[in-house]
Structure of Tryptophan--tRNA ligase:
Amino acid sequence: MRVFSGLQPSGNVHIGNYLGAIKQWVGLQRGNDALYCIVDVHAITIPQDPKELRRATLETAKTYLAAGVDPQKSTIFIQSHVPAHAELGWILSTLTPLGELERMTQFKEKRSKRDAVYAGLLNYPTLMAADILLYQTELVPVGDDQLQHIELTRSLAERFNNRFGKTFIIPQARVNKTTARIMSLAHPGDKMSKSDPNDKTRINLLDPEDVIRAKIKSAVTDSGNEIVYGPTAKPAISNLINIFAGVMGKPVEWITRESKELTYSEFKNNLADAVVQELIPFQQRFNDLKEKDVLSVLQAGAQKAAELASSTLKDVKKKIGFVL
Ligand code: TYM
C-alpha cells in the first residue's frame, strides 16, 4: 500500500507524536511503499523564526531516522523540496468552500490563541490534502487530531474525481487505538502538545533521563490508588497506561494485569523505566547522525518524491484545462 504521513518541524517532538504517529510509521515500512515528509511549508502557517525553522527541520529528519524510519525502505523528504505540494495545494484551495475551512477544529483552536491570523493558516488543510493526494496515498497513519483533515482530504478527492474524472485514490486514516491521543501529563483533559508553554506537560523525545523520570513522577494521578483503566473515570492513570502500552507494544490489558498490585508510585517507576529504555537508545542514535548524511538522505528522498508527484500533478493540470 502507498503510505504517506508527516510532522511539522516546530521543535519539542514529544512522546505523543512518537506513539501516535512515528512508531506506526516504522511498523508500516514493511511490505508498503511509504513516504514520510517534514512539512516545513505547513510550519510557516504561524510566524516562524527562520533559524529555528531550519534547526527544527533537520532535527525532525534526524528524529525520523533515529526512530527507525529506514531510508532504504521509505522515502524521507522535506516538503518545500517538492514544489508540487504548493502547486496542488493552490489548485485544491480553489475547490474548497471557505466555510469548510472555517469549521476545522484545529483552525479554530489556533485562531483563538493568536491576535493575527494569516490566510495560510486557513488554507492549511488544502495543503495537507495535496500532500496526501499527490502520491495516490491509500493509508495515512496519524494521531486522532488529524482525522478531520483527512476527512476533508477524502471529500476533496471525491469532489475532484466527480467533476474532472477519476484522478485521485481516496485515502484512509489509520490510528492506533491506545495511542491516538496521548494527553498532557499535567492536564489529562488536554492533548499533549508541542506548543504548550509548560514543558512538564510532555515528555520530549530528547529529554535527559532525569528529566523524563521527574516529569513522570510529577504527572497528575486520579483519586483512589488502584491501577485500573477507564478514560472517563480515571483519565490521568489511563493516559499513563496508554503511554506504557504504546512504549511496550503491549495491549492495555497486559499493562493493567501486570500493574494490579502496584501503588501509583511503583507504577510510575516502572513506566519511567520503560520510557527511558525506549528513549535513551533513540537519543544515542540521534546524536550519532551527521548532518551531511541526513542532508543526502533528504536530497535522494526529494528526488524520488518529486518524480512520483509530477505524474499526478501533470494529470491534474491537464484535467483542469491548463496548457501543458
Ligand atoms: P503534527 O506535527 O501536529 O503532529 C505529527 C503527528 O503526531 C500526532 N500527534 C499525536 N498523536 C497522539 N497524541 C498526541 N498528543 C499527538 N499530538 C500529535 C499527529 O496526529 C500527527 O500524526 N497536519 C499534521 C502534519 C501533516 C500531515 C500531512 C500528516 C501535514 N501534511 C499529511 C499526515 C498527512 C500535523 O500538524 O501534525
About this structure: The pocket of tryptophanyl-5'AMP is lined by residues 4-8, 16-17, 20-21, 39, 42, 128, 131-132, 140, 142-143, 145-146, 179-182, 191-192 (CB under 6 Å).
